[in-house]
């Protein structure tokens, strides 16, 4: 048994109990108990673990006691600018490569969507079903800050995070000054904090900027923001089926866009989390936060960062029960409350969020935004 996987789970539960004032809400206490029970099982099985990024609802935050937050103290050290100086070094893949607005043809075809061997069954990863798709074009990378800036400059669009006045940021990324002003956290995942003034231009709050990361994925965009961008660009969000088909890059039945091995030839193929989530990110893949959108090798269709880096919105409403019938150009259910997102992010680790697989999926309400959630667009014709 991998005891190294057990310790962080229990240490983390203790941190949650200390961090959250759950006497104020029975619901929160229940959520914590749930986390505790599932993590006991999850020590050798990641099925029930969660990074909590599906819990980012503005009405789901609770008060926290910053004075006694062990997580805060740990994260403050681990993620201080000083501790991470020199970490942003890529692995040598396409270091200086960035091509805005480029799309690639995804040929018509059929594929097996989902899996009959789900790692996280409650996410509705199965059953595997045959899906036929018409050809379409897809952005070769996540929409970048630079591309989104062009859209905002042209339209004066105001994102939902800017209208709400806040967005969710992973605690480990925040400066001490910003952290001191925050008194709430997500109950089920106290490392997610609602930060006033966090938006796409200020990914870690008012004292942060995108000036030095215009080629990184735009973050803090809600589903509606993403939809608005794609429409402006003459494109649309991909269906979940299109996204997953594209993710697979022409390979059948593989876990990742490049195959089944996470580190082929000892190399990192995606921007994920190395270390113990959520307290230590070693940045072994070169990045503790987002990476440029064309970092790491492209898949068989020429698509970059389909898994890892930023989560990506799709156009489908979220359900977890799927037909096993053969489908043609499925678009998901007619209505719903949450939208499907795919691919996982730089915060995903096998122990807590094994969702950097093509069949993996998660959801958020359409108005949610966070420091690890972005998108890319598709279109019928090349734009
Ligand atoms: Ca990383
Ligand atoms: Ca991605």
From TrEMBL:
One of its GO terms (molecular function) is metal ion binding. Monomer, homodimer and heterodimer with SUMF2. It is found in: Endoplasmic reticulum lumen. It comes from Conger conger (Conger eel). Keywords: Calcium, Copper, Disulfide bond, Endoplasmic reticulum, Glycoprotein, Metal-binding, Oxidoreductase, Signal. GO terms for cellular component: endoplasmic reticulum lumen. The keyword Disulfide bond applies. This is Formylglycine-generating enzyme. Its EC number is 1.8.3.7. Belongs to the sulfatase-modifying factor family. GO terms for biological process: post-translational protein modification. It catalyses: L-cysteinyl-[sulfatase] + 2 a thiol + O2 = an organic disulfide + 3-oxo-L-alanyl-[sulfatase] + hydrogen sulfide + H2O + H(+).
């Amino acid at each position: 048994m991998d005891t190294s996987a057990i310790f962080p789970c229990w240490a983390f539960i203790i941190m949650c109990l200390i961090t959250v004032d759950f006497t104020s809400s029975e619901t929160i206490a229940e959520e914590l108990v749930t986390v505790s029970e599932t993590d006991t099982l999850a020590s050798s099985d990641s099925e029930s673990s969660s990074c909590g990024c599906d819990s980012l609802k503005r009405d789901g935050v609770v008060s926290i006691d910053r004075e006694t937050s062990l997580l805060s103290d740990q994260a403050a050290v681990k993620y201080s600018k000083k501790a991470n100086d020199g970490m942003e070094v890529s692995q040598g893949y396409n270091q200086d490569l960035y091509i805005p607005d480029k799309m690639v043809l995804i040929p018509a075809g059929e594929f097996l969507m989902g899996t009959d061997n789900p790692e996280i069954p409650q996410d509705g990863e199965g059953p595997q079903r045959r899906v036929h798709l018409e050809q379409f074009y897809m952005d070769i990378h996540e929409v970048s800050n630079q591309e989104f800036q062009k859209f905002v400059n042209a339209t004066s669009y105001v994102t939902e995070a800017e209208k709400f006045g806040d967005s969710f940021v992973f605690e480990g990324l925040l400066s001490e000054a910003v952290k001191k002003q925050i008194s709430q956290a997500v109950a089920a995942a106290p490392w997610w904090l609602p930060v006033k003034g966090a938006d796409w231009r200020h990914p870690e709050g008012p004292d942060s900027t995108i000036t030095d990361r215009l080629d990184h994925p735009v973050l803090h965009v809600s589903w509606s923001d993403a939809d608005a961008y794609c429409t402006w660009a003459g494109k649309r969000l991909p269906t979940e089926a299109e996204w997953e088909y594209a993710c697979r890059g022409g390979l059948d039945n593989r876990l990742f866009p490049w195959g089944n091995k996470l580190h082929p030839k000892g190399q990192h193929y995606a921007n994920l989390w190395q270390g113990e989530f959520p307290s230590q990110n070693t940045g072994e893949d070169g990045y503790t936060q987002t990476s440029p959108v064309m970092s790491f090798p492209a898949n068989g269709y020429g698509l970059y960062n389909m898994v890892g880096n930023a989560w990506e919105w799709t156009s489908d409403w979220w359900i977890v029960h799927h037909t096993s019938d053969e489908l043609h150009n499925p678009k998901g259910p007619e209505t719903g409350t949450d939208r499907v997102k795919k691919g996982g992010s730089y915060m995903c680790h096998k122990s807590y969020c094994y969702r950097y697989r093509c069949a993996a999926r998660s959801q958020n309400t359409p108005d949610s935004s966070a420091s690890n959630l972005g998108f890319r667009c598709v279109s019928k014709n090349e734009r």
